[in-house]
């Protein structure tokens, strides 16, 4: 079987741990909308060009939850080794349960480490093998696991979900998954998502996690008036 250490990340990775709170604390000069986080700090946000928003809809490898006809769509760009992403994921699950008319997309943006890219490749391979429900289940399992998340750990978690580890590893190391992950990361970079997690909703991108109350308010605003701050 192929050496798992060969499951290398893409080269376009530059951020460091802690990027999310640093971006969150930037001044209101970096705000397209005057949004404050749950702790009262300005949330950096920017306008997303229409053509890039449309690219998200057609993005391969995105994992969707909720009805296609939902009144609001929220897309999270995440990194498995981002502690803010782990905390946000728990709150996002609650948000989904409370908003049945919300469509949520999950998109890999592994900018923190090669280990994050390894795990993202396994998730994309599992998505190809077993579909969105299995990819969601893997994400739940990885966020529930302590410590750093990497390729071998993701393979072991996927195997527990019934995936053939040899086939999964073959796909994860293959050109199709590499191309899919590359497209996801290029789109995130084109939008300007320099922090994880970042969210795209209502034509805006929020950089960093604003907290469950603010995120719920943003979703409610998008549903009511089509933008994140009515």
Structure in words:
The structure is a single chain. It is built from 9 helices and 6 strands; from the N terminus they run H-E-H-E-E-H-E-H-H-H-H-H-E-E-H. It is an alpha+beta fold. The protein has a single domain, classed as Glutaredoxin (3-Layer(aba) Sandwich), CATH 3.40.30. A hairpin with a 2-residue loop joins strand 5 and strand 6. Helix 4 runs parallel beside helix 6 and helix 4 crosses helix 7.
Element layout with pairings:
Layout: H1 19-24, E1 45-47, H2 50-57, E2 63-65, E3 72-78, H3 83-98, E4 102-108, H4 114-130, H5 132-144, H6 151-160, H7 165-172, H8 175-191, E5 198-201, E6 204-207, H9 212-225
Parallel strand pairs: 3-4
Antiparallel strand pairs: 1-6, 2-4, 3-5, 5-6
Helix pairs in contact: 4-5, 4-6, 4-7, 4-8, 5-6
Q: Main traits of this protein?
A:
9 helices; Glutaredoxin; single chain; disordered N terminus; 6 strands; alpha+beta; about 230 residues
Summary?
By secondary structure, the chain is of the alpha+beta class.
């Amino acid at each position: 079987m192929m050496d798992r250490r060969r499951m290398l990340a893409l080269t376009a990775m530059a951020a460091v741990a802690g990027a999310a709170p640093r971006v969150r604390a930037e001044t209101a000069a970096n705000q397209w909308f005057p949004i404050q986080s749950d702790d009262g700090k300005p949330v950096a946000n920017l306008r997303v060009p229409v053509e890039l928003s449309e690219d998200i809809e057609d993005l391969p490898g995105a994992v969707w939850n909720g009805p296609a006809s939902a009144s609001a769509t929220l897309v999270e760009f995440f990194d498995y080794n981002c502690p803010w992403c782990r905390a946000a994921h728990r709150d996002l699950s609650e948000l989904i349960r409370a908003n049945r008319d919300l469509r949520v997309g999950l998109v890999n943006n592994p900018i923190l480490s090669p280990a994050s890219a390894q795990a993202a490749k396994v998730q994309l391979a599992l998505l190809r093998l077993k579909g969105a429900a299995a990819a969601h289940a893997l994400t739940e399992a990885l966020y529930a696991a302590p410590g750093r998340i990497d390729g071998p750990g993701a393979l072991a978690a996927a195997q527990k979900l019934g995936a053939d580890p040899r086939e999964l590893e073959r796909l994860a190391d293959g050109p199709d998954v590499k191309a899919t992950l590359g497209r996801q990361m290029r789109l995130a970079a084109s939008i300007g998502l320099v922090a994880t997690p970042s969210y795209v909703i209502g034509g805006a991108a929020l950089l960093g996690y604003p907290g469950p109350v603010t995120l719920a308010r943003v979703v409610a605003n998008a549903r009511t008036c089509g933008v994140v701050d009515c």
